[in-house]
Amino acid sequence: MKDNVILLMEETGCEQGEAELALILSDNNLEKAITKIGILLKFITAFKIKLIFPQDSIYGLMHVAVNMKNAEILRFSMVVSHNPAVYENSASMDWFSFEKAIFSYRLDTGAMEDYTQNIEEKLREHIAKELKQLPVISKNEIQEIISSFFNPVIVKAEIISEELNLTQFKKLPDYNKNQNETSFTGYDLGFVRLDVEILKDLNGKAAGKLSEGDVVLSVITDERDIAHYLAHLIGGRKDGSMIPLPATVKRITVKNDDFEIHLHYAPSITGIAKINGKTLLKVLETKNRPLWRRIMPW
Prior knowledge:
- The chain is α+β, with helices and mostly antiparallel strands.
- The chain contains eight helices and 14 strands.
- The strands form four sheets. It has a five-stranded mixed beta barrel with strand order 5-7-10-11-12. The protein has a four-stranded antiparallel beta sheet with strand order 3-2-1-4, sandwiched between helices.
- Strand 2 (58-67) and strand 3 (72-81) form a beta hairpin.
- The protein starts with a helix and ends in a 13-residue tail after the last strand.
- The model is unreliable at 172-190 and 289-298 (pLDDT under 50).
């Protein structure tokens, strides 16, 4: 029971009392307790923000998801553009659709790509610092933080907040529970191929001996905005940096001793890694002998 309490706290960010209650209600079944915690705890707020710089005819969208318990930013994305259509998006749409709109407009011809990339991390750091000093986080405080960052430039912000529990935040809309994988049906992402690398391991498995169905540890190296967006969604990006994540080997093609390995991340997302067949790779699970299991249902 004690070990499960600690693990549940680490995996969900809940407090000890909440973990103990969830385990009691779940007959000490850790997987059920994780699901119950995810439904009960509503401590994430997504701030969907529309920006307008009236003196410069510049428009923007910003999404900030905050853990209200510790004031940490869980997700952050933004776009600044000359295209007034950006501002016509409704902030009342769900957080997933709003964030998708942000990355769509980052690919638009009117997007101020250099400016967006230049201030994005600086603004994120500014907001993160200010949030830590607030006793209460609300739309008004977020608006003041944004205004102070751009001062003396005048910027008007329209902000709508959306409260989420852990399950709503971890599981994307249209989540297919039976398949235990993310479905993007209805969001028209299309089929996307990402440049990726498989992590090396001196004690690992040679690329030439990989089999379809093996699970490897990979990193998304694709520099496109759409890649950064998708990495956010599938757990491959944290605090502005790409992080390793597991992926299943879907297909392997060989030319001489060079291997092209296709990795499955989600129904519409495939990673492509090119590597020499003798390279030793980090394999988490083989097709016939499981070595590693994800405990989190999402």
